[in-house]
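Example record

The entry below shows one chain as it appears in the dataset: sequence first, then C-alpha cells.
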Amino acid sequence: MSTWLITGCSTGLGRAFAQAALDHGHDVVVTARDVAAVQDLADTHPDSALAVALDVTDDAQVAAAVHAAEERFGGVDVLVNNAGYGYRSAVEEGDDADVRRLFETHVFGTVRTIKAVLPGMRARRSGTIVNLSSIGARISPEGSGYYAAVKAAIEALTLSLRKEVAPLGITAMVVEPGGFRTDFAGRSLTQSSTPIADYADTAGRRRKEHDTAHGTQPGDPAKAAEALITAVEAELPPYMLLLGNDASDGFRAALDALRDEVDEWASLSRSTDFDD
C-alpha cells in the first residue's frame, strides 16, 4: 500500500479521491483549509488517515503537511493536487486581485506542493504526482478564460515535469474532468463582481445567477475516484486522464477543430523559414 497526500478534501472530487484511496487500503493525508471539515475521515480511519490543515497558498502549511506525512507514514508516494475553485468572468471584467488569487491557488499552489514532495520522491526513486485540470482548459468556454488559463498552465507544467522526472522513477499526470455532481458550480464557484452589459450574451449567460447545471452534472465523483486509482496503479499511468463522457467528447471536438484550422493555414505557417 502507498501513502497519498490529497489537497482540497473537504468536498467534491477531493473527498471522493480520499475516500476511495482509504477504501483501497492506502494511507491518506487528508487536507483542507479548515481541518475540521476532514476530521471525520481521520476519525473513521484512525490507522490510515491523518487530517491536516492545508492552505496551498501558504508555504509553511505546505511544508508542514508534507512533514506530517513523512513523520506518520514515512513519506508521500502519491500527491493529488486537487485544491481549487471556479471563477467566471469575461476577460475584461476580471478583477485583478481575484485573478491573482486564482493563479496563486491553482498554479503556484500546485507548484508549492510539487516542490515539497519531490525531494522525498527523488530519494526513493518512486512516486506519482497527479494535477487536477479541467476540460475547460481544452474548450475554453466564454466566461471561463481565467479558469481555463490556470488549468492550461497546469497541463503544460505537468507535461514538462513528466519528462523531467520519468528517468528518476517518478510519474506526473493530469486529470481533466468534465462536469461532476459536486459543489464546484455552487458554493465553490466565484465570479466577477461587476458584469459588463456588452458580454450579457456570452460570458453573462454563464454567471451563477443564470446557471442551471448545479446538481444536474452527469459525472459521479465516486466513479471518478475509482478511475483515478486505476490510472495511478497502472504500470504506465497516462499523461492525461479524461473523466466523463462530456470531457471525452469535448476534448475530441476541440482537437478536431484545432487540427482543421492548423491544416487550413498550413501553407502560411510553412512560409516563414529562410529560403535555402
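Notes for this example: The longest strand covers residues 170-177. The chain has one domain: 3-248.
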